[in-house]
Amino acid sequence: MEGIPLLHILILSTALFFIGIYGFFTRRNLITMLISIELILNSVNINFVAFNKYLYPQQLEGIFFNIFIIAIAAAEVSLAIAIIINLYRKFNTIDIEDTNTMKH
Amino acid sequence: MAMNLSILVLILPFLTFVGLAFFGKRLSGITAGIIGSISTGIISLIAAFIAFNYWVMSDGKSTMILFNFPWLTFNEHLAINMGLLLDSLSIMMVAVVTFVSFMVHLYSIEYLKGEERYGSYFAYLSLFTFSMLGLVLSVNIFQIYVFWELVGVSSFLLIGFYYQRPSAVAAAKKAFIVTRFADLGFLVGILILSFEAKTLDIPMLIERLSSPDTLTSGNIKMHMVGGLSVISIAMFLIFIGGAGKSAMFPLHIWLPDAMEGPTPVSALIHAATMVVAGVYLVARLFPVYFVLTPEVLHIISWVGIISALLAALIACTQTDIKRVLAYSTISQIGYMMFSLGITAYSHGETLGYTASLFHLFTHAFFKALLFLAAGVIIHAVHSNEVAQMGGLRKSLPTTHIAFLLATLAISGIPPLSGFFSKEAILTATHHANPVIFWLAVIGSSLTTFYMFRLYYLIFWNKPAEHHRHHEHALFSIPLIILTLGTLLNGFIPFGQFISVGLEKVQISFELGMAAVPVGGSLLAILLATLWYAKSTSYPDKFVSLLKNFYRWTYRKFYFDELYQFVTHKIIFNLIGRPIAWFDRNIVDGTMNAMAWGSMYFSQAIKRIQSGNVQSYTMYFLGGVIILLSILLYAYGYNLIN
User: Fold this and answer.
1) Chain B touched by A2 (CB under 8 Å)
2) Are A101 and B611 in contact (CB < 8 Å)?
């Protein structure tokens, strides 16, 4: 474990973050967009764990936040899936372009 | 106490108005007319009872203020009160107004029968009676103003009663605008007066402004503007209001057109009651005019005599029966006005005041009689033009006698009532100002001439018709009652009842004095008989002799055209149009520009809210990046160190 420098881990998490952002912006499928958000959250998780491990190994705040984020992500996914299912029932599609009547 | 009944005089017509205004349409037939007549009949009885109590049961000199309460308080010195002021002047006016109004109500039951807005008509009549009575009973000059405007509104409603007729609508508008314009002067006058005298209460105003020590004690400071005291200006402005309502020159133009209303309305409003409101106003404030501002009385006397002569001249040429009577009204009110005015020339003698109100009293009867008789004639002939009439003496006998007696009365032939009041005016004038006296005598002869011209053109001039027109009982009864009034009113010792101070005035007649105007009138009757009793060519010859003057007179000296020119060409073009342009382009333009601006702006930013979640996140990301770069730019230095 000592062999992996912090920088590599940060590069990984940054890459993961922007892959998520890119996916969120370009995909039209709501499920795929949800997956992209999960990618963003996971990149943040990696950051928390890495910094905790490398900078303050005696403390556990980073780990706590990690667990928080996982719990919130789970709640968020269940909400988002519920919304998507309702949208599907209403519009018969989960394409984001076709649901813009929701603005009204 | 009997005087407390006076509140009913106001309440009953008001309730009748409200009731008829709301439920008048549901009443069938002549019910509305009967309700209105009963209500007016009751108040005329009450008025008679009050007058009896005031003059017979008591000394007839006290001034009573009843039901007085502050309605609007400005500060501890100035409050507007509402209440009833009962003194000889107001009781006399209430008696006249209720009586004439009752006669007109009775007459209207039949005259307006079958009219679609029968209920509204009687509602308006009640409103008018209410506001006129409120006006004469006002305790406060501002209260007078309130009722003054109510009188204006009800006269507007009644003149425009036949609202499908464009001429009636135009006449109603004209009457309202002209009197309203004059009322502006009245209002400004009231405001100045309230500032100078620190009160609006009529008795207190008179006490403060006309007691002998007003001028010397210095309680009232006389502000001077351009050589005139401010109070003079205020009193003159108040007179302008009165001149507008009383159709005095040069504000007389509305009255002849007001004849578009139903004929009983002309009898009530434009002959007997409303138009004398101006005379009443000057009479009400007479002590102030007399003591403090005699110069305004000079103006009043000249305005009065000019109106009297001008209207008499115009009346000689008109061919519409109601128009002739309208001009004769202006002329007679001119007599009342200058009679009030000439007291300023008469070295402290106030006979003119009593004479003026005496003439007001007798004129109300015979002028209402003339108009109601004219109504019967119009009803029978279905035209206002005298050319359509002629030879009616056999077919309308009651009307004929009534009209003849009223004509004799207005001509000042003894022993009818008009003789006594006109003689009183002429006597007072003779003592005061000989110029006005001789002008008034000429006016009186002219009056006789045009009234007899009218009389002959209606009832003679053509072979008598034997076809008998039906004269309904409800037409005849008011005519007969008013004829009796015309015959007998002159014998009332009016000077015992109404005078300025507490001492009574003896109206005396000098034989030499009476000879001149009566002789002039008899000559005028002779002339009219020669010219008009049979259809002759004399009038046409005379007209061709004075061609231009006749045309000027026939066109009413072009006053309507002059007003038309001033309002349309000058006021509309020079003031109205620029203001309209400013309003349309600058005021509206600013508002429109703001509206257009926000519309275009909102349309431009509307696209941003596309409903597309991904574009929202793009904006969000862009915002985050911008914020982040700003933060880095501002605090990045600190972060590095």
Assistant:
1) no
2) yes
For residue A35, name the pLDDT band (cuts at 50, 70, 90). very high
Q: How far apart are the first and last CA of chain A?
A: 53
3-state secondary structure of A48: helix
In this structure, what CATH number is given to the domain that contains residue A73?
A: 1.10.287.3510
Beta carbons of B614 and A103 less than 8 Å apart? no
Tell me if chain B has a CB within 8 Å of the CB of A92. Answer: no
Contact across the interface for B612 and A100, Cβ inside 8 Å: yes
Among A24, A99, A102, the residue with its CB nearest the CB of B617 is A24
CB contact under 8 A, A100 and B611: yes
Cβ burial, residue B82 (10 Å; 0-12/13-18/19+): middle
Residue A23 lies in a domain: yes
Distance between CA atoms of A35 and B474, rounded to whole angstroms?
A: 100
A84: contact with B, CB 8 A cutoff: no
| pLDDT exceeds cutoff 60 at B258 | yes
Residue A1 belongs to some domain of the structure? no
- Asked, for residue A84, whether it belongs to a domain, the answer is yes
Q: Provide φ and ψ at B124, rounded to 5°.
A: -65, -40
- Supply angle C-alpha B513, B519, B522, rounded to 5: 145
Question: Among A100, A101, A102, A104, which would you mutate to test the B interface (most chain B Cβ atoms within 10 Å of its Cβ)?
Answer: A100
Domain residues for the domain of A78 are 6-91
Residue B609 contacts A, CB cutoff 8 Å: yes
DSSP letter at A59? -
pLDDT digits (tens, 9 = 90+) for B274-294: 888 889 999 988 888 888 888
pTM for the model: 0.77
> Is residue B611 within 8 angstroms of chain A, CB to CB?
yes
Instruction: Find chain B residues with C-beta within 8 A of A104's C-beta.
Output: 611
Question: Which parts of B505-592 are beta strand (E)?
Answer: none
B189 exposed, middle or buried (CB, 10 Å; 0-12, 13-18, 19+)? buried
Q: Nearest 5 degrees, angle CA A47-CA A53-CA A55?
A: 90
Banded pLDDT at A19 (limits 50, 70, 90) = very high
Q: Is B615 on the interface with A (CB under 8 A)?
A: no
Which of B88, B73, B64 lies closest to B361 in space, CA to CA?
B88
Contact B131, B226 (CB under 8 A): no
Amino acid at A45: N
CB B481 within 8 A of CB B399: no
Task: Give dist(CA B348, CA B505) in Å, integer.
Answer: 13
Asked if the structure places residue A99 within a domain, the reply is: no
Distance CA B261, CA B156 (A): 9
CA distance B125 to B118: 11
A25 reaches B (C-beta below 8 A)? yes
- For A100, name the nearest residue in chain B, comparing CA atoms only: B611
**By the CB < 8 Å criterion, does B605 face chain A?**
no
State pLDDT tens for residues A37-69. 999 999 999 999 999 988 888 888 889 999 999
> Minimum mean pLDDT among B91-105, B163-177, B310-324, B551-565: which range?
B551-565
Cross-chain Cβ contact A24/B611 below 8 Å: no
Number of domains in chain A: 1
